Amino acid sequence: MMRKMFAVALASAALAMPALGQTQTLINEDFSGWPVALNVTSAPSGSPWTVYGNVDVIANGTHSITCASNNCLDLDGSAQTAGSLESQLFQFYAGDVLRFQFDVSGSQRTASGLDTFFAYLYSTGSLSISSLESQSDGAVDYSPSETFGGGFALAPELNGGLLASTYPWTTWYVQFTLEHDAEIGVGFLTTSADNVGPMIDNVLLTRTAATTVPEPSTYMLMAAGLAAMAAVARRRRNA
Hints:
- This protein has 239 residues and is α+β, with helices and mostly antiparallel strands.
- The protein has helices spanning 2-16, 216-238; strands at residues 23-29, 37-40, 49-52, 55-59, 71-74, 84-87, 90-92, 97-105, 114-116, 118-123, 126-135, 147-149, 152-154, 162-164, 170-178, 182-189, 199-208.
- The protein folds into two domains: 1-18 and 214-239, no CATH class; 25-205, Jelly Rolls (Sandwich).
- The chain is 16% helix and 40% strand.
- Strands 1, 2, 4, 5, 8, 11, 12, 15 and 17 form a nine-stranded antiparallel β-sheet that branches. Strands 3, 6, 7, 10, 13 and 16 form a six-stranded antiparallel β-sheet that branches. Strands 9-14 form a two-stranded antiparallel ribbon.
């Protein structure tokens, strides 16, 4: 009987052990909910984005542009005002795994030329990270366990943030583990201001929780097992 109760307690303790949590999608943006238009100065209602300057929302196959999905976003609006896109801040916790992923291409509208392009993360304070992974045709500007604040840039092709107009659609990502709680957002920008800017599509931001919190019933089961063990031990002492 004692061994049985001990097994119940061990099983309860195992259920209470922290486990890797599920992945939460914070941003999944293919711009299908944005009206196709030139010189857009604001995101649709309810969107997590803020537009600075102006951008063009392009339908696949129009203006000699091929999108990665049905719509894509030209960061350089037709008013020749450099544009940028920045998300709201999202809460992350120590141990969470952050993944920031998107598709990017050059302007596709000139045979030659370079446009500035940066994708970045920003926060309300400095960040400490570990287990950094990236795929961006150019190095992420920070190394594992690096502390940084305000910006975390993905520079294309190690070329000072310049993107060739003929650059094909490519998926980039950066992923790392947070060592401290932080509020984090993502953004994209160009300074080209020449009506032919970098194109972005399929933006994804996810948070994989470090641990799941055990359900109250798990704690109750564990407590019941331990109480049963204690009752058996008392009976044996009193026998």
